[in-house]
Amino acid sequence: MDNLTNLTIEEIHGALAKREASAEEIARAHIDRIRTDDPRVRSYLSTCEEKALEQARAVDRQIAAGEPLRPLSGVPVAVKDVILTRGLRTTCASKILENYMAPYDATAVQRLESAGAVILGKTNCDEFAMGSSTENSGFYPTHNPHDLTRVPGGSSGGSAAAVAANLATVSLGSDTGGSIRQPAAFCGVVGMMGTYGRVSRYGLVAFASSLDHIGPFGRSVRDVARTMKVIAGRDALDSTSADISVDDYEKSLDGNVRGVKVGVPNEYFEGLNPDIRANVEKGIKLLEKLGCKIVPIRLPHTEYAIGCYYIICTAEASSNLARYDGVRYGFRAAEFSGLRDMYRKTRDQGFGPEVKRRIMLGTYVLSSGYYDAYYLKAQKVRTLIARDFVEAFDDVDVIVTPTSPIPPFKLNEKLDDPLQMYLADIYTVTASLAGIPGISVPCGKLPGEPPLPVGMQIFARYFDESRLLQVADAFEKAGGFSVS
Asked: The pTM is what?
């Protein structure tokens, strides 16, 4: 069977059931493609070929024994390198954890493997998931498969690029302020963040604990829905995971969105690249043709979201990253005089510039005399942003916005201007602060050569991932991914 690297999950299962291909053949096809194509894309930090082939052979043995296929049997998966994988390196794309071997699996990884997934390797990202371009990796930047001179977005750029380049069928990323949705938009794939607490964070290396999520990337909404169903649900090892039943998301993918009320907030269409705006507006018109009712809404506290987000996330990062001091985890400076000097040199040599910047910002906003002025005030604004969404969902079922105000930018274009990099997250941080679910789906491409992807973002009520996926799937089935 040809083209084993561009199959959907359903197509993989069809090939396995009909014995047109084995799980081992599918895994080998992906490994071969990674060897030939990834030196240009650089989506992976490490691969685990023998582990992948061993898992694939186990699937083939189960099929030969007449056992039914599991939800992800034989599906090649990539995992962002901030998510623990037992016996494999988990570096967080940081020199400070360059040789760290994870002693256990994250719950999301364990659930993938229990569902029959084949783990191909660990993907590149911004160091400790701090960034919007995957240029802040401690090892090398990832390139956008659509244009190798441009960034794939971040921080989960490696996971998005791997799926876009057919180097994995689905992948896991993490999203703190848009780190799944923005790279999904830049790479022209589907990326989903569930409600906060929908997916266990156990085994996710912490950046900002009240904002961090694990979520899937795929080339179709159905693939993302199935992967999300596998990893979602209560976990006794994560006290913040929600004890709320998980729907069978694939059952909601019926293509019928007639009567669904779609909110469109004006605040998300200001200061926007005009070509992106045109594509997203065409996407909204397509939803209207499908029977959705378009409702103008207001989310009045949106303008405060970036400032609010970068106070809260840096404050939590400065606390979470205090553990990397050379005593217990990872790298330790070779030469030092005394304990304090060891701390200083270890952190100076082990962390990159963006991580240091965020630690310093976070330490400042938590410091005596500034806590009330910055951190406490930001938490109050966060409540107002969440209230905006709650009130909006009294009138609408979903909210549709652009994912990013700008197209994928050139490598090194914004690296020396952190403020511009932070402003690229303006449309994604709001959902993170509110804790609601969000998904980015492809919405055509920009004119030019090569044409660059555009992402359209959809939000839903707390724990209403089924509705989110239903609208996204209907949009895909109606040709929305290539809207023009």
From this structure: 0.97
